[in-house]
Amino acid sequence: MVLIQVALDLVELDRALLIAQEAVLGGADWIEAGTPLIKSEGMNAVRKLREAFPGKTILADMKTMDAGAVEVEMAAKSGADVVAILGRADDAVISESLESARKYGVRLMVDLISVDDPVARSQELVALGVDLINVHVGIDQQMTGKSPLETLAQISKEIDAEIAVAGGLKPETARNAAAMGAGIVIVGSYIIHSDNVTQSAKEIRQAVDNAGSVPDSGKKSQEDEIFEIFWRVSSSNISDAMHRKGAMCGISTLFPGRKIVGRAVTVRTLGGDWAKPVEAIDLCGKTDVLVIFNSDRNIAMWGGLATKTAVNRGIAGLVVDGAVRDMHEIKTFDLPVFAANVVPNAGDPKGLGEINCEITCGGQIVNPRDFIVADDSGVVVIPKERAYEIARRSEEVWKKEKRISDEIDKGKSMSSVLELLKWEKQK
Ligand SMILES: O=C(CO)[C@H](O)[C@H](O)COP(=O)(O)O
């Protein structure tokens, strides 16, 4: 049977204990004191898990890079059954950790995160005598689209040792990991950030139990995944994920409740000249957003007729650093419109400007094909090169906020959920 390990990558011990309980009900076999939990609570996290789950295997994810013997000893004495250290560590650290593991009767797992040649290194590690190899893509690496499954496919053919796998696994990928020969499937985020931990653990259990031996090759495209996530999250989540970069200034929705998710077709135009914006409509597809910079915010370069054309074309929305008019007509359509100003003054079709060039809109640089997400809080631009990473990070922000919101619903205060006093910056 393939084992499931729930990775408690949290900083609050009480919450970690609760989640572990729920994950066990869903079928988790091993419980991991994740590195953030250990850094936050020390070996007490391992002790408390040991006490609460006497029949379960407890793993201490120490990510040790130095002082192997003492770190393994600490974890073992606190009640861990398995201790995880880093494969990038020097062989001296691995050997010292192994000595300590043997002395204190625990198993040693070595994590291949950021190892240059995972196959060669895992062969060396097996030769040194480690008990388990963990094929792992870390949380920050996952955001750039890396997955542990390619490495797992190579390693499982080359080494004769028990293999664990970790790195953003969900039911589909957990199933594939099991089909590829992983003996332990480690899952953090999918379970611990779920609003139904037991159900999510069950989904992993089911996927792994029905894995068979053939991985499923059907994979969603990255573009589809980006769109799916951006529809789910808010512009505020994305701004958080981008560390407050990306939000346009002075541009807001004209019709609350309408959202845009799409890729930019950009236009730069001058003094109310509406020729280029109107020509650009004909270049837009259904997932495109027209993003326009106009140098004059008091002459409208967009109105009712342009809106009708854009709606017929089926474009995703309009973002204008400039002015629009004919609100009585525009509001009769569903088109999401975000603008800096509304005025009755009409512009003229002069043909000045450019389509699909780099523009500045609401103070943000926008390039053709960049992603735009706009909702009642405002407009954010996500450079296309970082779209997948930002989508994944904003989804993490969304999950975290959802989790805090659930706890507030249960009667806790925001300050107690976030342990604000404990985490205030010390002088
Ligand atoms: O060790 C870890 C991070 O360094 C995590 O425990 C591991 O990656 C599993 O969590 P997730 O499923 O969220 O990737």
UniProtKB/TrEMBL annotation:
SMART domains: OMPdecase. Keywords: Carbohydrate metabolism, Lyase. GO terms for molecular function: 3-dehydro-L-gulonate-6-phosphate decarboxylase activity; hexulose-6-phosphate synthase activity; orotidine-5'-phosphate decarboxylase activity. It catalyses: D-ribulose 5-phosphate + formaldehyde = D-arabino-hex-3-ulose 6-phosphate. It comes from the Archaea. It holds the Pfam family RraA-like. GO terms for biological process: 'de novo' pyrimidine nucleobase biosynthetic process; L-ascorbic acid catabolic process. Its EC number is 4.1.2.43. It is an enzyme of class 4 (lyase). InterPro entries: 3-hexulose-6-phosphate_synth, Aldolase_TIM, Bifunct_HPS/DMK_prd, HPS/KGPDC, OMPdeCOase_dom, RibuloseP-bd_barrel, RraA/RraA-like, RraA/RraA-like_sf. Residues 3-204 form the Orotidine 5'-phosphate decarboxylase domain. PANTHER family: 3-KETO-L-GULONATE-6-PHOSPHATE DECARBOXYLASE SGBH-RELATED. Belongs to the HPS/KGPDC family. HPS subfamily. This is 3-hexulose-6-phosphate synthase. It comes from Methanolapillus africanus. The lineage of its organism: Archaea, Methanobacteriati, Methanobacteriota, Stenosarchaea group, Methanomicrobia.
